[in-house]
Amino acid sequence: MRGYLFPVLLACCSLSAGCVERRFVITTDPPGAIAYDEKGFPMGAAPTDRQFVYYGKYKFTLVRDGYQTQVVEEQVKAPWYEWAPIDFISENVIPWTIRDIRRFHYTLQAAPIVPPESVLQQATILRERGLVTGTQLPLPGPPVPVDSAPVNPNPPGPVLMPPAAPE
Fold first, then answer.
1. What is the pLDDT of residue 129?
2. Would you state the CATH architecture of domain 14-107?
3. Which residue, of 70, 90, 94, 127, has the fewest CB within 10 Å?
4. Are strands 98-107 and 20-29 parallel, antiparallel or unpaired?
């Protein structure tokens, strides 16, 4: 009976082996900003969360009406139990789940209110600058009919000689 105890205990430990669950939670002030990941895919409205696989740099874009769009980068450092070779034990041997939850909080800045008169004034300045920049292209003239087009009597290319008369 004692010979079977070790394999049974090993099987139980391997079946109940834990893992590390990695998540980050993004919150904003004010709440409700849409968070996009580094590939441009929406993660959801804040507060939102997502699992992550690797430790390293992550980039988020936060968008909300009436607030400036904010692009942030976060460096997610590995905890001590994820350093090699300890990570083998924390990922495969420990019989429970380790939860690594990272929380990121961002405060959004209100977008400045620009009066319409200011936008119109800037547009007028840019329009005037565009009129004097560079040289103006010539206006196209009236189309020339094909029948009245001048014909070049000496077109470029090889000169063709008439065949020689037979003797």
1. 86
2. Sandwich (2.60)
3. 127
4. parallel
User: Contact, 52 vs 39, CB < 8 A?
Assistant: no
What's the 3-state SS for the chain?
CHHHHHHHHHHHHHHCCCCEEEEEEEEEECCCCEEECCCCCEEEECCEEEECCCCEEEEEEEECCCECCEEEEEEECCCHHHCCCHHHHHHHHCCCCEEEEEEEEEECCECCCCCHHHHHHHHHHHHHHHHHCCCCCCCCCCCCCCCCCCCCCCCCCCCCCCCCCCC
Strands 56-63 and 70-76 turn out to be antiparallel
* C-alpha torsion sign, points 7, 8, 11, 17: negative
Q: What are phi and psi of 90, to 5 degrees?
A: -70, -25
Q: Which pTM value belongs to this model? A: 0.59
Tens-place pLDDT, residues 80-115: 878 888 778 877 787 888 888 999 999 999 998 889
